[in-house]
Amino acid sequence: MTYNARIANEESRVNYEEFRREYLAGGLERDMLAECPVAQFERWLQQAVEGNIPDPTAMVLATVDDEGFPWQRIVLLKGVAASGFVFYTNYGSAKAKAIARDSRVSLLFPWNMLERQVIVGGRAEKMSAAESARYFLSRPRDSQLAAWASRQSRPISARQLLEAQMGSLRAKFARGEIPVPDFWGGYRIIPERMEFWQGGAHRLHDRFRYYLEADGSWRVERLQP
C-alpha cells in the first residue's frame, strides 16, 4: 500500500470533524486584567495549580533553526518574575543552538482544562553561572546525573547506551557532590508581548494582547477571535 493510500484509509476510519465542544468556563474583560502581564500570568498560573491541572508549569517553547524551520518542544517553567520566564537545558541542545542564532522565542501555556492559553513572545538570554548552579544543586541526584549523561539532541543508536552512560556516571560520582556541567544552565525569556486567551461560546473567544512600550509600560488590545 502506498503512503497516500494508507493515509486515505486511516482517514476513512476517523472523522476528526466530530471532535468539538463549547467553551463555557467564563469570559474575559479588560477590567479583569492586571496592568502588568506577568502579574496576570501569575494569577492564572496559581488558578491552574489550584485547579489540579496536570503539569501546570509545562510550556511549549518555539524556536527557529538555521534553515528557518520552526520547531517546538515542551519544557518546564522553573521560575517567573517581572524579569522573565526561566527554564534550564543543555547548552548543546537544538533549542540552545537555535537561541544562539536568534534569541527571539515564543512560549505557549496550554491550560485546556480551564479553557485558557497564554502566549509569550520575547528574547532569551543565558542566566548567570551562579543562578544555574543554585538550581542544579537543588535537583534530585538522578536528575543531576541525567544532565551529565545526555548530550541532548545528538543521535544515539540505542537506549541501552544512554542507560550505560547513566550507570557509569552513577559509579563515578558515588561519593560527594555532583559538579555542575559547564554545558548546562538556564535561560530567561524576557517578554515583549503576551497574549491571554479565554474560550468563549460559539467560538467567540476572548483575546487580549499586551505590548511592551519603549518607556517600559504595557499597552493592551482586545483581539478578535
Automatic annotation (TrEMBL):
Pathway: Cofactor metabolism; pyridoxal 5'-phosphate salvage; pyridoxal 5'-phosphate from pyridoxamine 5'-phosphate: step 1/1; Cofactor metabolism; pyridoxal 5'-phosphate salvage; pyridoxal 5'-phosphate from pyridoxine 5'-phosphate: step 1/1. It comes from the Bacteria. Residues 184-225 form the Pyridoxine 5'-phosphate oxidase dimerisation C-terminal domain. GO terms for biological process: pyridoxine biosynthetic process. Substrate binds at residues 20-23, 78, 135, 139, 143, 203-205. Pfam families: PNP_phzG_C, PNPOx_N. Its EC number is 1.4.3.5. FMN binds at residues 73-78, 88-89, 95, 117, 152-153, 197, 207. Its cofactor is FMN. Binds 1 FMN per subunit. The keyword Glycoprotein does not apply. Residues 46-167 form the Pyridoxamine 5'-phosphate oxidase N-terminal domain. It catalyses: pyridoxamine 5'-phosphate + O2 + H2O = pyridoxal 5'-phosphate + H2O2 + NH4(+); pyridoxine 5'-phosphate + O2 = pyridoxal 5'-phosphate + H2O2. GO terms for molecular function: FMN binding; pyridoxamine phosphate oxidase activity. Catalyzes the oxidation of either pyridoxine 5'-phosphate (PNP) or pyridoxamine 5'-phosphate (PMP) into pyridoxal 5'-phosphate (PLP). Homodimer. Belongs to the pyridoxamine 5'-phosphate oxidase family. This is Pyridoxine/pyridoxamine 5'-phosphate oxidase.
